[in-house]
Every structure is written in structure tokens, then in C-alpha cells.
Amino acid sequence: MRTFLLLVLFSFSFFKVQAQQPQKLSASEIYEAVKKLNFIGSALYIAAHPDDENTRLISYLSNDVKARTAYLSITRGDGGQNLIGPELRELLGVIRTQELLAARRLDGSQQFFTRANDFGYSKHPNETLTIWDKEAVLHDVVWVIRNFKPDIIINRFNHRSPGTTHGHHTSSAMLSVEAFDLTNNVNIYPEQLKFTDVWQPSRLFFNTSWWFYGSQENFEKADKTNLLNMDIGTFYPSTGKSNNEIAALSRSQHSSQGFGSSGVRGREIEYLELLRGALPADKSNPFDGVNTTWSRIKGGEKIGAILYDIEQNFNFKNPSAHIPKLMKAYQLIENIEDEHWKKIKSEEIKTIIAACSGLYLEAVANASSATPGEEAVIAVEAINRSNVSISLKSIATIPGKSIEAKNIALENNIVSRFNTTMTIPNDATYTTPYWLNGGATLGMYKVNNATLIGNPETPRLVKVQFNMFINDVEITFLKDVVYKYTDRAKGEIYQPFEILPEVTSKIEDKVTIFNTRSSKKIPVKVRAGKSEIIGSVSLKHPKGWTVTPDKIDFSIAQRGEEKTVIFTVTPPQNVESEGFLYPKVVINGHSYTDELIEINYDHIPKQTVLLPSKAKVVRLNIQKVGENIGYIVGAGDNVPESLKQIGYNVMTIDPENIEAGSLDKYDAIVVGIRAYNVISALKYKQQFLLDYVNNGGNLIVQYNTSGRRGLNFDNLAPYELNVSRDRVTDENAPVRFLAKNHTVLNFPNKIKRTDFDGWKQERGLYFPNKWGKEFTPILSMNDKGESPKDGSLLVAPYGKGHYIYTGLSFFRELPLGVPGAYKLFANMLSVGKESVEKKERIKG
């Protein structure tokens, strides 16, 4: 019973990308899969974030050694920045999860996560492990190890150097070291043993390099007694690529972080320092001394005898010639006692059998989604592209298990197509990332179903089971139901088949600022998940606010159609106030309160996310001067939309179109986050921006990164300005006013220390640590135990105008509706406009 629950509830077979174009293996790829089938060993790589993994080593272990390899990322990267779009926090975590899965598809590995929430940069593991809830994350690391059962574990970071790098990095290694000593103890997390067994890995390594020693010279002098070294620059003739070229393709999937990489060729050495276990005699082989042959498994010798022979005598011209032996090996695998390897190798050999026979099986829904209780029509395709004897006995739709007896003989290259139907269960769970269902704290996601912990994504509910006979041997294939269509530009597009609510709703503007006592119209979009929807919408609101009317009736005819209803929202009259609006849709007595968010980028599968529908409203007495703001979009943020909320006319500036005089119409120009990192044209247009300032303009430059992926810009500012890696990660860190009489703290809004209350994730990042005497530092702040950081907001006059550089995290605070951030930004936009405001007041 325990084994059944493990396989069903905590299936680690979902790592194949769901709803991607079906994999169709070439003869060379089948041969490589056979070699992997014949390696009985596993390696687990552990680090903190998406992009921390060493794709070169992971690819080498998977593609050269042929080990079953996986990456355990402690977090999903939710706390980072996004170079490709506006998604942050939970939605960025969804994107980065899929980018890791895309990377693993390319390097042939698997992916795991814990419940840890990436809360942003942390300077010490003491802070990290407190915010994360160390015990819960350690539980998850042990859980993944017990289920994946690695022979070797490799840490990306050094567990012995707390405080010298990102606290998440060191913590990932510390957790791995501690877990290594716990996973074989039945008294540790005994509740896990209902679904899995204890396990003891053979060795634990640290993936070190000269970088961890400070210099190449130090590394050359270091004692290497406990170091393994491997040349991972292998060339694979079957793919025409070197290992490092494959690794570069894998790493390039991290598009949201701008990690596009060029492939390299030639010899390259990776080093592993032994932390636990016996030192291998062969220091080029981390598996040395571990039995990785079929003889490791009771009854495996007979299987190995068959499969090693296929490997040694593989028929590249006609792989189907191996089907009789493969089917015999499959039957033997199905009878071994070791449930762990039985599950893994059964799936591997079934993939090889299907590829050798040219067997193609597909189940495609007639719509991209369905609702609970709705009937879905599924088009089934089955084709045998070989002379092997194959027949389709029956199919079963899951859930529902409605058996359709077919007994169809699949003749060589004759396609069989037919339709079947299935009813989505009334209690079916919606398709959405499982870790977002239970809410979250600053450091942890809440997952109610413990068997889902570790999974990269929610297992797909709707499947079709193909019951087959191949060479008179019964064999079953399980396929996710997908949706596909043809795009005239991109061709055949596959998408996941989703289970969605009958209706969802959303307020487009996630923050609405009321800077007067006037009411505003708040549109609510209602989207139908099925046809013929009739219901009503109401809007829950904060105390002291009023909403009219109480409810609005609506009807929608077609699935996917949206209808907009408009409410009038009035703020409190004389007090500053903030809160949330919550749409509620009622249909046939059932209430629906979720918003449907679709994430659609070419490099990952389309994602649907259901989150509670809400929008923040803020009554704020805010003053501003100026109307027309030019915005140069950087690495993706919602600051322009936020500025529109307080009445600015914001126009996007294309850097390519900047020329002499083209900027004169703007009262101020704002440069988006990391713009100087990602927009090469700014190198040639910067002088026009500085001329704009010199002629009386106001230029605000938001943070840019420094370091190896950082700034290479000679004239970022009109005066000396050195961008560093200084940051203040405590969002509650006290803020001190260095220039309390400066206009930026007083005009047109009086900035108080309370205006820094309610900031999220951090104060700011990449502050300058050195600047010319022309700059006035406005604020000082620091994390606990650190020296003051005075470079978060710098203002300098230049000619007739002003240049402002800020590392404050406005890109996070403004979209979250933090009132003080709006006031301070309005003041920054108004610098130098005091005389204009005075003239307007006199004229009025």
C-alpha cells in the first residue's frame, strides 16, 4: 500500500515537460537512452536558486556518465528581478520554475524544489534559516533525498563560509550537509516513511573551484588530497555538440535573468571536494566503488545480459529489430522486487520501446480548458511506424476510467484516429501551481498535500491510458491530455490542458491611488470558463469606503469571453486610508473569488495561475508638479503604470529615437531599472540625456547592477559615480535623513520617517559607494551590524537641471501601493520645479 501511494501521490515521473511538443527520438538518441538505461545510479545537485546550478557538471553527469541526475533548487527564485516582463514575486517564481524545467529538458536531468520562499537577498544564513523555517526546509531536503535516492550529492556552495556570500547560498549547503546525516535515520521525520524509505547516499561533495579560494594562485597552492577532478569538456558525436555547448543551451533558458550563454569547446576541469563518505580510488569518477550495473538489483543480471547486448550491438538503421529483446527485458523489469528501480527503469524502457517501434500516441482535447462537471471531447491518435506486431487493446480516460474497447491492430504506418469523451469530476482541483494554493509567509509556502512537496509543478489530472500489446506482451502507456493548434507563423503549438473555474474576475489596475476626494470608476473584468454563464458581481471594500452599485448582473455567451462591469468607488473624505477591493462572482449560488493569470512566453509552456482576485486602493493626499514624464523602460517594471495612477502623462521613450531636442517636451525623464545593463543603445544616447539635464531637465536613473554581469558605462552620470553591490535587505531598516532641508524631502510633499513604513522585501540595492562632491546624499540606512549606506538617493545639479540616481526599490514598492514611495517619487519628479509651482500659484 505504501508503494502504491508513493507512486500515485508523489510521482517523480512528471519531470517530462507537460504539454510540450511530443519527443521523437532519433536512432542516435535511442542508443544514448539505452546506455542511460544500463546505468543504475543517481546524482543530486543542490543549490539555492534557479541559475545557481552548474549546468556543465549536471550535463556531464547526465550525458557522459549516464547517471540519473537531478537539481534540487531550495527556492523558485521568487525574490529576484525579471528581464523579460513585469511579473514579480509569485509569478516570477512560476516563470523561473518553468525555465529550470526547460533547462533540464536540454541537459537530460530532473528538477526538485522545497517550500522555501525566496524573500530576496540575505546577508547571513542565520537570517535565512530563521525566515525560511529551517526545520521545514530541512524536512523537504530529506524528503527529496529519500525519494530520489541519490548515490552522490553535490553542493554548489561551501557550507563552512557563512556571511561571505548570499545567505541562501550558504544555507543550501548547510542544509545538504545536515540532511546527509539524517536521511537514513528512521526517527527523523518518521511521517515520511508512510510513503518512502530511509536512504543513505554514499558520498557528499562540494563543487569547488579556484573562485572559492580567492585566486588561481591560492588554488594552485591548496591541498588537493580530497579533491576529485573531471574533464567535463566531452564531445558527443551523436549530437554534434560538446558537453559545454549543451550546458550553454541549458543555461540560456534562464531568460528572465538574462543568462544567455555561448557554447565553448575543449577541455575543462571541474573539481569536487569530498565532504562525507569514502574517497574514490579513481579521482576522476565520483561513482567509483558504487555498483552502477544491473547486478546492483536482485534479479538484474538477466536484465543486464539482454540490455548490454543491445547496447553493444545497436542497430542504428533499424532500431525496431531490438523490440523482441526489449520486450523480454521489460517483462523482467516488471517482476523485480526493488520498487524504486522498477518504477524508474520501467518508464525508461517503455520510452525506448515506443521510439524503436515508431509508436506515436497522442490525446488532444477539443478546447484548451474545461470546468469541473463538464464533458471534454478528446481526439486520440495511434500509429505504429514499424513492422513490429502492435495492437491497441483499449484506452481508459483518467480520471473516470471509462474504458473504450478497440482491439485495433496497428499496421505499419497506418494511422488510427478516433474520438472519445470524458467528464471532468465535479470535485476536480483547478490547474494552478500547487505551492500557491495555501498562501505563504515571507519565507515559506504552505503546501497542504505533503506528497506534493518537491514536485516542480502540479501533476496533470487528465490523462489517457493506452493498453497495448507489443509482440504479444501487454504494456501500458500513459499520456497527458493536451491542447494544440496551428499558428500561421509558428506552426504547431502545444499547450497544457487546464481545469479552470466556471468564472474568474480581475481588476486590471492592481493599485488605484485616490489623490483627491473624488470617486473613480473601477472596471472589473469577468471571464467565462464555460459557455452560457449568468451571474452577478459584487465588490468587497475597506471600511470607510463606499462602492456603488451593490452588485451588477451579467451574462456571457461563449467560453473565454470577457465582460467588463463598472463600479464607482469613493474614498474616505479627509483621512488617508488604504485597503483592498475583492471581486466576488456568484453563479447558481456558488461564489468565485479567483483571478486567472496567464503567462505566455515562447521559451516555456503557457502557464495558468489562479490567485485570489484583489486590488489595492489608497487614499493619499499627494501633491505633484509637472505633467509629462518620459520613461525609458529597462529590465521590466510597472513604474510607468504607477505614475499614471497619480495623474502623470507617462510616455515611453525608445532610446533609438533619442536625438538632440527630442526630450525637451518632458518635465522629467525616468530611466527604468537596469536599463544601462540591458539597452546597448544608451551608450550612444547618454550624451543627449545629459544635455537634457544641462538645459534644465530632471533625469531620474533607477538602479543598475555592478559586478561580472554589471555596468560598463563611462558616463552614467555627469560626475563621478561608482555603482557598488551595497544593499539594504531589511525592509524595516531605520532610515535617517542626511539632508532634511533638501527640496526632495520637502517639496511638494513633506517626507516623514513614517513614509518608509510598509516597504516590502528590501530598502534598495546596488547603491553607489563613491560619488563626486556635486552629489548630495539624501538618506542613510543599513542592515543590522553594518556600516551606514548613504548612496540610496543622490541628487546633483547639472547646468540648469538635476540628475538623480536612486537604488531604492521603487520598482517593488510602487506596484504594491506603498504610499510613502509614491510621495517620495513625486518629489523626485518635482525637483527644480519650485519656481514653476510658485508661478502657477500666483497666476491662480
Provide structural commentary.
There is one protein chain. It contains 18 helices and 43 strands. The chain has a seven-stranded mixed sheet with strand order 3-2-1-4-5-9-6, sandwiched between helices. Strands 34-33-35-36-43-42-40 form a seven-stranded mixed sheet, sandwiched between helices. Helix 4 (89-107) runs antiparallel to helix 9 (243-251), helix 5 (125-132) packs across helix 7 (167-180) and helix 10 runs antiparallel to helix 11.
Strand and helix map with partners:
Blueprint lengths: L1 H8 L17 H11 L4 E6 L7 H9 L4 E6 L15 H19 L2 E4 L11 H8 L1 H15 L3 E4 L11 H14 L22 E4 L9 H6 L5 E5 L3 E2 L4 E2 H9 L17 E8 L23 H13 L10 H12 L4 H19 L2 E6 L3 E2 L4 E9 L6 E9 L3 E8 L6 E8 L39 E8 L2 E8 L1 E6 L3 E6 L1 E2 L3 E4 L4 E4 L5 E9 L4 E8 L5 E3 L2 E6 L5 E9 L6 E11 L2 E3 L1 E6 L7 E6 L2 E5 L8 E5 L6 H7 L3 E4 L15 E4 L3 H4 L3 H13 L3 E5 L18 E8 L6 E3 L26 E8 L4 E2 L1 E3 L11 E6 L2 E6 L3 H4 L5 H12 L3 H10 L1
Helix pairs in contact: 2-10, 2-12, 3-9, 4-9, 5-6, 5-7, 6-7, 10-11, 11-12
